[in-house]
Specification:
The complex is a heterotrimer of chains A (428), B (308) and C (282). With 308 residues, chain B is mainly α. In chain B, 68% of the residues lie in helices and 1% in strands. Chain C is an all-alpha fold. In chain C, helix 4 crosses helix 10 and helix 7 runs antiparallel to helix 10. Chain C starts with a helix and ends in a 12-residue tail after the last helix. The chains are: A alpha/beta (428), B mainly alpha (308), C mainly alpha (282).
Chain lengths: 428, 308, 282
């Protein structure tokens, strides 16, 4: 039975393989996470123009991390191009896992048109130690999204401070209507750690204020405590399941009209604004993340993805051609209609895009004002351990197992140890 | 030579073997050769690599080049309180999962052990939970357990209860929720092998016992269970091994939380190895898991041998 | 008279009870699968509702269209998985059954040690094996090939096959085999003519299990495969995004992925029961 099956499978496979790859001479492998999947529909165009066959491999985040590390550390080129998370930049650059792109950018400067790329996005996603290691692909800005219809009806102004959020959440919560004031992610690990740090950064906090001279974290400051106290307070006006919310759950809660506010990345805001997946697409308001007290300066935490060339590949030219294409103004604009996170100002200024995602001009202004901050999650290789330690302590505080003060002081000392064990100076 | 009066399978040790009859041992080596080759290539090599790695400081985020670390990793392991807590939690998870799977699995196998019309379809469908890769099984259950959209909460409320538990958000319940998913997915494994085992038991035995006045309960405990014991032991060993390694469903359902209520050993190994890329320390933990499971399996086997 | 009528009646009642009990058990274990299949016919907005929509939704084939006719057809991955699972199962069952036979009946060498050695593969957290395997297959140039993936899957299930078959062989009375041996049969002949036919139920169980192990395996497949040799679980995982999960497509792909194993389980389970006749060996 098995042999017959495998024969059938082999024949089927051979037939399928014969259909692929015969036409194009060159071929490259490109590996990324699901937000890269959107380029699938545009890829045939590129393959047509360039004669390069692109094998696109989409993996979940942990598997992308694992496969890329095996490939890069092992000195092989299973994939010629990798998507690079913002937090991996330092590690990949320092170890030379990816190829510096400066010479290619200079050669093709007209085509690349660096001036059109948002400076905050370019610096934080691609520049390390004065060199350029990747090209930005998606620029994610962290904003506070809210239901403008509910706010208007209740006569509440867009929230500016922690207290505003708390008051609005309290006022809008209506369990009988299955409506809750706010929901943030509280699930252990990346969800609570990353969203808390974004909230902290939005309020003016910096986790490692004196890096790289001194890596002492700032979780023992009053602002950190204020932020966590507010963050935990919001749980009272959140759906009861929020204690286990991943940011995916937060996104769905907003899309289904169960919550009135959600602080999150603009890539998720895009999902709120799509009528085919969101019930509240026509009522999405947005503003900065809240500050501790009225008048404090605003910051927009920044994250995102870039594309980089594996240092071991000998297919630099086709890989670079692909990167130029995927970061070109035209592709960025067309992808922007789908993901709302272009990294070029030309795409962000596109009237059609701005109509779909009205916060784009707001972000452009913020980029101009220079209040975009990329290191809300420090871009150092030790960050995953920091996140694990912080995520556990914060989650325990959310569960009521420990107080906010205890969580922060535990996290402060654990993070200090993690960073100094990794060989970075911690003076405090 | 055929011993006609031993109708039951006796203990393997007391049984006469072919060797005693004088057949060349070499023939049996041919039976063993393929698996032995596989073992040497694909088990011993990685095992040696694993042991070597426990003596290295090999942190990929620092440097791709490993350094000799002596017994540092072992010292760190002994001092790692969170690790030992996760070992205890994993043992609870394993024991509870196995007891539930075994009890349900044997009962269901006895129920399904009929050559009637339609039972074949039922048996095949029952295997369906095993056909979903654990990572996706975990995702489906996460949705079922959801407090916002979950079918389970809906049914509980329909049944007239005021409140449904926060399956994955309550530190007192979350481990039980993970156990439910594990039992759901792997009870079919127990059913599959117990069903195969039941085929060897002669109906004559049951008939003889019935004539002697034994009820169904007595027949089950005096005939079915003792005769199945080699298979039951093997099933326990395999379920124990897999339960000790539980990772996918934990990763998807709870990521070790809430708090650290569902943080299992394998979750820690995974985090250390793949998220932090501390290969040396992850290997040390993995080696410990290997040894624990090894001892556990050996003890189970001894217990089984003694019983038969 | 009453005895004549009473017997069949109570037998019918017992039969009814067994059927009813079986269906209840089946329902309890299958509702998550049914929910997933229902989800595969829902739009995203219908998946996330309160109360959950059990029947009251308009089914859509959109998810299946996306999965089957997307830029890369899912059936390509199904073909990969079928091939890998077939090779892995063939190796695991063929090698496993012969080894178990030798271990149970032959008593040669240190069989316990070999049994445990093979078991130790299963005991290691997969994370610990990833790197050695990656390096091994890279250095032999097999990385990304179907045989490489199939062999790891085979090693994964071979321990179970050996141990289960051995337990089973030990349960089988030795008398027939001994009789055959006295009549001059070689171990091969005993194995082929007597032991194998008698072991059909256990082989069926082991085969079903080995197939499913390979079919579902994710951790190794994701590292050892390339874009051409990806298996079903690896392909399905692309619906798990870091921004959101494409639930409808995920459910549709998982449902499609279950069909081949369900068919095989249906074929395999026929051999699982022996009509309760063979046990009457004396």
């Amino acid at each position: 039975m098995q042999t017959r099956l495998s024969k059938i499978a082999a024949i089927g496979l051979a037939a399928l393989m014969a259909g692929v790859g015969a036409v194009h001479a060159e071929n490259i492998v490109v590996t990324g996470v699901s937000s890269f999947k959107l380029i699938e529909d545009l890829l045939p165009e590129f393959e047509e123009q360039s004669g390069i066959d692109v094998d696109l491999q989409i993996l979940p985040y942990p598997q992308l991390r694992q496969n890329s590390m095996a490939d890069l550390v092992g000195g092989t080129a299973n994939s010629d191009v990798y998507m690079q998370d913002i937090t991996w930049l330092g590690e990949w650059a320092t170890n030379g896992y990816v190829r510096p792109l400066d010479d290619l950018i200079e050669r093709d400067s007209a085509e690349v048109d660096l001036d059109d790329i948002l400076p905050g996005a370019f610096d934080s996603l691609s520049k390390w130690d004065g060199k350029t290691w990747s090209m930005p692909f998606g620029a994610y800005y962290f904003l506070m999204y809210y239901r403008s219809d509910l706010f208007d009806k209740a006569g509440i102004a867009p929230p500016k401070t922690f207290a505003d959020i708390t008051a609005a959440a309290d006022k809008l919560t209506d369990p009988s209507a299955n409506l809750w004031g706010i929901a943030m992610p509280y699930r252990r690990g990346t969800p609570i750690a990353s969203w808390f740090l974004a909230t902290y950064t939005g309020a003016g906090g910096r986790l490692l204020p004196d890096a790289p001279q001194d890596f002492t974290p700032s979780l023992d400051t009053p602002l950190a405590l204020d932020t966590l106290t507010a963050y935990l307070k919001w749980l009272e006006d959140a759906p009861s399941g929020a204690i286990d919310y991943h940011w995916n759950d937060q996104t769905v809660a907003m899309q289904t009209g169960r919550i009135a506010m959600a602080g999150t990345f603009s890539i998720n805001g895009t999902e709120f604004a799509k009528p085919d997946v969101s019930l509240v697409s026509d009522a999405i308001g947005y503003t900065y993340m809240p500050v501790a007290k009225e008048g404090d300066p605003n910051t927009i935490p920044f994250g995102g993805w870039a594309v980089a060339i594996n240092a071991n590949t000998d297919k630099v030219e086709p890989a670079w051609k692909f990167i130029k294409w995927v970061s070109s103004p035209d592709v960025q604009r067309r992808l922007g209609a789908l993901n709302g996170t272009p990294m070029r100002s030309s795409a962000m200024s596109d009237p059609d895009l701005q109509k779909m995602y009205p916060w784009l001009p707001f972000i452009l202004d913020a980029e101009e004002a220079g209040i975009v901050y990329p290191d809300y999650r420090p871009r150092y290789p030790f960050y995953p351990k920091v996140e694990e330690a912080l995520g556990l302590e914060l989650n325990r505080a959310a569960l009521g197992e420990i107080t906010a003060e205890e969580a922060l002081s535990n996290a402060q000392s654990e993070i200090k140890k993690i960073i100094s064990d990794a060989g970075y100076p911690v003076k405090g | 030579m055929p011993v006609s009066d031993t109708t039951l399978a006796g203990s393997s040790a007391s049984r006469p073997s072919f060797q005693g009859i004088g057949i060349a041992r070499a023939t049996y080596w041919w039976f063993l050769a393929p698996a032995t080759t596989l073992a040497v290539l694909l088990v011993i090599l990685p095992l040696v690599a694993l042991i070597v790695m426990t003596f290295l400081r090999w942190n990929l985020t620092e440097s791709p080049i490993p350094a000799f670390a002596g017994v540092d990793n072992y010292l760190r392991l002994f001092a790692d309180g969170a690790f030992w807590a996760s070992v205890g939690r994993t043992l609870v998870f394993t024991a509870e999962s196995i007891i539930l799977q075994l009890a349900l699995g044997i009962a269901i196998a006895v129920l399904f052990n009929r050559d009637w019309f339609g039972m074949g379809v039922i048996r095949a469908l029952f295997l369906a939970p095993m056909m979903v890769a654990p990572i996706f099984a975990g995702m489906i259950w996460r949705l079922l357990f959801s407090d916002d959209f979950g079918l389970i909460r809906y049914v509980i409320l329909l049944l007239g209860f005021e409140q449904a538990p926060l399956w994955l958000g309550d530190p007192n319940i979350a481990l039980q929720a993970v156990i439910i998913v594990n039992v759901w997915q792997w009870t079919a494994f127990v059913v599959l092998f117990i069903l195969a085992g039941l085929q060897v038991i002669s109906p004559d035995l049951y008939e003889a016992a019935t004539i002697d006045g034994a009820g169904p309960w007595t027949r089950f405990w005096k005939i079915t269970i003792p005769l199945l014991s080699p298979i039951i032991i093997a099933v326990i060993i395999f379920r124990a091994i897999d339960a000790m390694k539980v990772l996918d469903i934990v990763y998807v359902l709870t990521a070790g939380g809430p708090g650290n209520s569902t943080e299992t050993v394998s979750y820690r190994v995974y985090q250390t190895g793949i998220t932090f890329f501390e290969l040396g320390y992850a290997s040390t933990m993995a080696l410990f898991v290997l040894l624990t499971v090894f001892v556990m399996a050996y003890l189970l086997l001894l217990a089984g041998r003694k019983r038969s | 008279m009453s005895g004549v009528f009473g017997r069949p009646l109570s037998r019918v009642a017992r039969r009814g009870a067994v059927y009813l009990g079986s269906l209840v058990v089946l329902a309890a274990f299958l509702f998550p699968i049914a929910w997933m299949v229902a989800m595969s016919f829902k739009t995203r907005l219908d998946i996330f509702t309160w109360p959950p929509k059990v029947f009251s939704f308009t089914p859509t084939l959109e998810n299946y269209e996306k999965v089957l006719f997307g830029s890369k057809s899912f059936l390509h991955y199904v073909a990969n998985s079928v091939e890998i699972a077939a090779i892995a199962t063939l190796i695991a069952v063929a090698f496993g059954v012969t080894t178990a036979f030798a271990l149970a009946k032959g008593r040669v060498g240190n069989s316990k040690a070999l049994g445990f050695l093979l078991l130790s593969f299963r005991m290691m957290p997969p994370v610990a094996l990833l790197l050695p395997y990656y390096l091994l297959f890279r250095s032999t140039g097999l990385l990304g090939t179907i045989p490489a993936i199939a062999i790891t899957h085979a090693v994964f299930s071979i321990a179970i096959v050996i141990w289960m078959m051995r337990a089973f062989f030990e349960e089988v009375p030795n008398e027939i085999e001994e009789a055959a041996t006295i009549d001059g049969a070689t171990p091969w002949q005993v194995f082929i003519r007597i032991t194998l036919p008698m072991s059909r139920p256990a082989i069926a169980a082991a085969t079903i299990f080995a197939l499913m192990t390979s079919w579902n395996e994710f951790v190794f497949a994701v590292v050892l495969s390339n874009t051409q040799t990806r298996t079903v679980p690896v392909a399905i995982s692309s619906f798990v995004g870091e921004v959101y999960v494409s639930w409808g497509e995920l459910a549709a792909a998982t449902t499609i992925g279950m069909v081949p194993t369900l068919i095989l389980a249906f074929i395999g389970q026929r051999y699982l029961l022996y009509g309760l006749t063979f046990g009457g060996v004396k």
